[in-house]
Amino acid sequence: MKGFPPPSDCVTRSLLAKTLTQVNFYLCQKNNMNIQAPIGELQNLDWTEILTKYLVRKVLDSCINRIKDRCNRINEASNKKKPFSIRMDIDEIQDFLGHHYKKSVNWATEVSFRDNTTAKILSDIFIELDLLLSPRKISISRGKNHRKYPVSEVLEFSQNVILLGQPGAGKTTITKQVFLTALTDDKEKFVDFSFPLMIRLKEEFQEQTDIHNIILKKLGVSITFPPDEWIKERNDIIQIIASNILDEFKILLLLDGFDEISDTSLRQSLIFDLEQLALSTNESRFLLTSRTGDYDYYIPNTKTFEICPLTEEQIVEFSEKWLADVTKADNLLTQLRASPYWDTAIRPLTIAHLCALFERENRIPEKPKSIYKKIIQLLLEDWNNQRAIERVSQYGNFDSYRKYDFLSNLAYEITINWGLSVFNTEHIEIAYKILSDDFNLPKKEAAKVVKEIESHNGLIIQVGQDSYEFAHLSLQEYMVGDYITKLPFIPNDNETLIKIPNELAISAAISVKPSFFLFFLFIQQLKEIALTPSFINPFIERLNIEKPDFDNHGVFALTAIYLYSEFCRKYSDLVALKRTQLEIKSERDEHKLVHNTLKNVLSLTRYPVYKYSLRELKTLYSFIEVTLNPSGQMFCLSRFGKTILLKSRYSGTVSLFNNKFYS
Fold it and tell me: Which own/partner contact pairs does 442-448 have at CB distance under 8 Å and 24+ positions apart?
């Protein structure tokens, strides 16, 4: 059947295993086949007909009369002149359920998005995710020793399930997998259910605002009330009948996308309905998915799980399944591990897009800034747009772009003021007060604004009762760096700047003029204070990873010469010291650190643009000799002079270009 997974993969095996005797008997009668028909003979059957006719008739034959009897008892116990009536026709329910299966199975079997060249079959790429028994935001500790459950065990609990996760964590994909598995698999956890019923709340809860009516509509069941009768009792009767049908049919109700309901009153209405279902059903259960930031409710008789970030083993497994080639997956993972955004791969949405990009280009983008922008766009806007979801902000013009500006400001304030990657409500409130006027936000609503940002995009997530963090450290660093580049000047708090070398390296890389950014940062702004291994090493190492597009203006060579010259001068003793003269370990460590720093500084000269920059520098200044001496006995650069003299007093000089350069 079109839309179903191939029977040899799951449908035939699982359905026959689930109801072996009855279904085989049905197939024999209908198709004059052997009881033990081989798989090949079953592939051309109409599986919609088999599933709907067999399951519906099997269930309805034993329960429709009981539901009608219940309706009759309600009518008899009332004082109404005219009774209500219920229409439950087996053939109609079969048709409605068949239509539901066709639509839901076609939706569930594929995974596709804009970056992906072709849709993927869910069964080909699905991996077992882990779940925490309670959301991290209500956890007292941030420890990593919380008990985890495989997602395949989620329905082994006797209660209903609330499944939470950050944007892109895999909530909808898990729902698809549960639907297909409950429909076709032979695992014992699904024996208690006759069939699943999928309700995509984004589509169906907007038109009809009562979950009980939606259930009846999906099954083709209708209740007719006489005019002017049962006015007050109608909702109660509908709830009773819907609950009875769920229990009699033993339906697994799957509700995907609570967070996609934008209207607060509709959310409250759904929660109320689910409370009634949770208390009035025994044989049926529901599974509700939502973004973590959007769900702060309690429903009795439920267990709440949160999807864990991917482990490294899961990232490897996902990559191998997506690319269907272990060698390609190894190549991708090697590139990712060498990148600064490896931490973003812990989210299924991100690793799926990275796999799709790699599948199309056989490499990931060379410039990390491309990935930062891509991931932030995914979380802020693109993913919702691709799924046709509109999330309405309560704060006027606080749209996705405005949210990003706010977040980059917030990241800067938290990083600059406290140097934190994990922060609490007090930190947010202090930073919020600084930013509220600029963004025209209510001064006393810091928690509400941050909660909205968390629920809309997941760039900030709550990881404890009073603990927040940016979803990925690399994105926090990028947003701080991006904020700095948008300022009209580099902040003049030098003592703070030297604590954020990674963020400043990103600023240089994404700057419109990276060469000038380096010049102003080191020669004009930080000067002597930056000439330490603790700042230069992480700065240049991150700079080399970020791969900035340096232009060939002379200031690039000028900055490289300045750094080497001044660093040699500052650490002249250690630069000149030979290893054979070292006796104390601490001196040896410091000597090694200084020489590693010199290597990092010299790495700037390996950029192809360096030699062109040096030639450009020659047209701006008159040189007598440009050399760099490991002994460190140098004259300082004169930034404003017409002549720069870097003449060695000793032999054994090391030049930045071709050993020596003469004008």
Answer: 442/395, 448/394
The 8 Å CB, 24+ separation contacts for 295-299 are 295/162, 295/164, 295/258, 295/259, 297/271, 299/160, 299/162, 299/271, 299/274, 299/275
| Residue 333 C-alpha from the chain's centroid | 18
Question: How far is CA 461 from each of CA 90, 166, 290, 423, 469, rounded to the nearest angstrom?
Answer: 48, 8, 14, 11, 6
| Burial status of residue 57 (CB atoms within 10 A of its CB: 0-12, 13-18, 19 or more) | middle
Neighbours of 323 (CB within 10 A): 19
Q: Which band of pLDDT confidence, cut at 50, 70 and 90, is reported for residue 501?
A: very high
Percentage of the residues of the chain whose pLDDT score is greater than 70: 74
pLDDT at 630 over 90: no
Residue 17 is which amino acid? A
Does an H or E element contain 121, and which? strand 120-121
Phi, psi (degrees; rounded to nearest 5) at 305: -115, 155
474, 341 Cβ separation under 8 angstroms: yes
User: What pLDDT digit, counting tens, does each position of 159-211 carry?
Assistant: 899 999 887 888 999 999 988 888 776 555 555 667 789 998 887 876 567 89
Tokens of 59: 């269930």
Which letter, b or e, does each residue of 224-260 get, where b requires 16 or more Cβ atoms within 10 Å of its Cβ?
ebeeeebeeeeeebbbbbbbbbbbbbbbbbbbbbbbb
pTM listed for this prediction: 0.70
Tokens of 376: 């932030």
Return the closest-CA partner of residue 122 out of 78, 178, 186, 62.
178
Provide the H-helix boundaries in 110-166. 122-125
* Cα–Cα dist 179/184, whole Å: 9
Q: Which amino acid type is present at position 231?
A: I
**Per-residue tokens: 569:** 């001068």
**13, 22, 655 from 17: Cα distances, Å:** 6, 10, 77
Hey, CA dihedral for 165, 166, 167, 170, is it positive or negative? Answer: negative
User: Checking phi first, is residue 334 left (phi over 0); if not, alpha (psi -120 to 50) or beta?
Assistant: alpha
Greater confidence, 53 or 82?
Answer: 82
CA pair distance 435, 106, nearest whole angstrom? 47
- How many Cα neighbours within 13 Å face the side chain of 425? 10
Q: Is 145 exposed, middle or buried (0-12, 13-18, 19+ CB in 10 A)?
A: exposed
- E strand residue ranges, 139-281: 148-150, 160-165, 195-200, 222-224, 251-256
Average pLDDT over residues 20-27: 41
